[in-house]
Design goal:
mainly alpha; 80% helix
Length: 406
């Protein structure tokens, strides 16, 4: 088996475990109410996790760009394990915030999409990059299919504390998967060599004045806003509608399963069609799915249809955003550039989770929060569709005055 294939397999497994642990966290909201943790308190811990994840991502990305993926993954897996273990001992909001908020947020930043997709992008040639990223991101979603039902079964059979300790053990075991990973030198990107060798400060200055990068970054806010709200509050919303907790775990698992097919398809489509337009359509179709879900009475059937639809669109953004970042700016500083885009995603996650918690505690329902998800999704579509996806060199050439004929 080639070293590149081993690296891709290990990256996929690590991404799958991280995604499964993270996306199963919403299952703990209801049982933690027994120790007095309210919806707002739980939402704050989940929102803090997302915000810390986003704030840490650019800096952890810089470390991976400089020192390699292996040490970052190994240390981050231990931090992730410590976070779940501390959350398991919580008697109130403080330990939950430190464990599930601060430490889990840092751990996910070092074991999640921003690091893993950079590794995959550097390992394959430009013509295969979109498909490879799509395949890894797709298979990486299967962890939710397994860990969501396992998490619910552990909660029902042993209690939420024991379930979190098991999650801590799983997270810590990822360090063993990181140790064999060894990256080769980055493959070509299609970006001019001189541009790909620019120092980080210069690349960031160019990116922060690039209208396309800015538009994509702002639009990515909506992605986090919608998905983290659903991830954290869908179990509570279904319980409010009188549906069993097992349906929540099934819905989260179905999201993970369908995401496998949707993300892989996005990788294939991204290699052939406009990545910026595909990304805009993802935002629009998610919003349409949300409108349809709240327009009809909630039932097991409509819930599973909604979960399947959202699953097909869940991580489809991963190969598209990473593809745009790599194609426009190159791979030398991919971790940092993707990290700043992802920061916007996580600020959106923070806002989406907190909106759900406040709306629910104030009104006893999620009606106003669903309307917010629809509005923010439409804004993202409008921003993303006309994105300027030219490289800085292409933009500079287009800005030059045309020579007058003699």
């Amino acid at each position: 088996m080639s070293r590149k294939l081993v690296l891709l397999i290990l990256a996929t497994v690590i991404l799958s475990v991280t995604a499964g642990l993270r996306q199963s966290f919403g299952l703990f909201m209801a049982p933690m109410a027994a120790i007095g943790i309210t919806a707002v308190a739980f939402s704050f811990a989940a929102a803090m996790q997302s915000l810390i994840w986003g704030l840490a991502q650019p800096f952890i990305g810089m470390l991976a760009d400089r020192f390699g993926t292996r040490p970052v993954l190994a240390v981050s897996s231990l931090i992730l394990a410590a976070g779940f273990a501390i959350a398991a001992t919580a008697e109130g909001a403080l330990a939950l915030n430190i464990g599930a908020g601060l430490l889990v947020g840092i751990g996910i930043a070092g074991t999640g999409l921003g690091i893993v997709l950079g590794t995959v992008s550097r390992a394959v040639s430009p013509e295969k990059r979109s498909q490879a990223v799509g395949a890894v991101a797709a298979l990486g979603s299967l962890g939710t299919l397994v860990l969501a039902p396992v998490g619910q079964g552990l909660i029902d059979g042993f209690g939420w504390r024991e379930a979190l300790f098991v999650f801590a053990g799983i997270a810590g075991a990822m360090m063993l998967l990181a140790l064999p990973m060894k990256e080769d030198a980055p493959r070509g990107t299609g970006v001019p060599a001189a541009e790909d060798k620019q120092p980080l400060g210069e690349v960031l200055r160019i990116a922060f004045t690039h209208p396309g990068y800015i538009a994509m970054t702002i639009a990515f806010f909506a992605c986090g806003f919608q998905l983290m709200f659903i991830n954290v509050h869908l179990p509570s919303y279904l319980a409010l509608c009188g549906l069993p907790a097992t349906l929540s775990a099934t819905a989260l698992g179905l999201i993970g399963l369908c995401n496998t097919f949707g993300t892989y398809a996005a990788g294939l489509l991204g290699a052939r069609y406009s990545q910026k337009r595909l990304l805009a359509l993802v935002y629009l179709l998610r919003t349409v799915a949300i409108v349809a879900f709240i327009a009809f009475p909630v039932s097991p059937a409509t819930t599973l249809v909604f979960a399947a639809a959202m699953g097909f669109l869940w991580l489809t953004v991963a190969p598209l955003v990473s593809g745009l970042v790599g194609r426009v700016f190159g791979l030398k500083h991919f971790g940092a550039l993707y990290g700043f885009v992802f920061l916007s995603h996580q600020v959106g996650s923070f806002c989406g989770v907190m909106l759900g918690g406040f709306v629910f505690d104030l009104t006893g329902s999620y009606g106003a929060a669903w309307i917010g998800l629809i509005a923010i999704g439409l804004i993202a579509f409008i921003l993303q569709w006309p994105m300027d996806d030219r490289t800085p060199a292409e933009r500079a050439r287009a800005a030059l005055p045309m020579a007058k004929p003699a």
